[in-house]
Amino acid sequence: MRDSNGSDSSLFPLIFIRENRGLTPVLAWTFTSLTFPAKEPGMNTFTSLRLRYLEFPGRAQAIRDTLQIGHIDFVDEHLSYDQFRDCRATGEFPFGGIPVLVIETSAGKQCVAQSNAILRFAGRLAGLYPVDDLLQALKVDEALGVGEDINGLLGPSLHEPDTERKMAMRKVLAEETLPFWMDCLERLLVANGGTGFIVGNHLTIADLKLYWIIDWLTMGILDGIPKNLTDGFKNVVDWRRNITAVREARLTETAGG
User: Fold this and answer.
1) pLDDT at 44
2) Rounded Cα gap, residues 251 and 66, in angstroms
3) Which long-range contacts (CB under 8 A, 24 or more apart) does 236-245 make?
């Protein structure tokens, strides 16, 4: 989706969102199940979860995937840009941005922000975060940090109003900066033994986080960023193929009950 002037500045869900957008009214999808997977003691003390975000993947999709894969009941609320602006103006979001997770407990309601914090919480509930292995948890956190570093690289060009300057910034990103980070991912995968996962031998929230970032970068919706960005990085290409298959299988399993 683009602005009327062709800008792609809000295609990725950074906190700073242009206000000249209009999307459909709020949508809410409820995912339910009867059982919870193994998780940390005391984690299941809430009575309901509501994830609030816009209606595209962005910073929320890894969280959505994690909760669905883990058979965790939650309401997936999709806000329009107008609704986001209104809610932000009334102070509904702790730090002014989304996603937020609204948690109902016996003691009351809490609204929690920061996508990585929410993703870790979801990962613990779903069994996609290594709670019993500190070193593996550290490696997952490391990968989440890599994801945030990559996200941050795009911010300046996303909000650059001058087309010539924007494209100059994108040229550096496409030819130098992003290939450097693709090589970093390549080395992470090699260091993990070529298992097809970022950490260990199983799907974790690190895979889902980075999967959606790479998907966004290679969709062809960011002017000046080539769709073949990952070409030449064999382990990254193989990892994406594996995560696509594993993710679809796990979601299909969840949908089938």
Assistant:
1) 55
2) 9
3) 236/182, 236/185, 236/186, 236/189, 238/194, 238/196, 239/185, 239/189, 239/196, 239/197, 239/198, 239/207, 240/211, 240/214, 242/196, 242/197, 243/196, 243/197, 243/203, 243/207, 243/208, 243/211, 244/211
Query: Can you give the pTM of this predicted structure?
Result: 0.82
Identify the pLDDT of residue 21: 37
User: What count of Cα atoms within 13 Å lies in the side-chain half-sphere of residue 208?
Assistant: 31
Measure the CA–CA gap between 10 and 102, rounded to whole angstroms: 24
We find that the CATH architecture of domain 134-255 is Up-down Bundle (1.20)
- What architecture (CATH level 2) is domain 27-126? 3-Layer(aba) Sandwich (3.40)
- Among 59, 9, 63, 79, residue whose Cα is nearest residue 31: 63
Rounded Cα distance between 254 and 257, Å, is 5
What is the C-alpha to C-alpha distance for residues 104 and 141, in angstroms, rounded to an integer? 26
Q: Which stretches of the chain drop beneath a pLDDT of 50?
A: 1-42
Domain ranges of the chain: 27-126, 134-255
User: What are the structure tokens assigned to 180, written together?
Assistant: 């450097």
Tell me the torsion sign for CA atoms 29, 19, 58, 95.
negative
How confident is the model over 88-124, as pLDDT tens digits? 999 999 999 999 999 998 889 999 999 999 999 999 9
The pLDDT of residue 254: 84
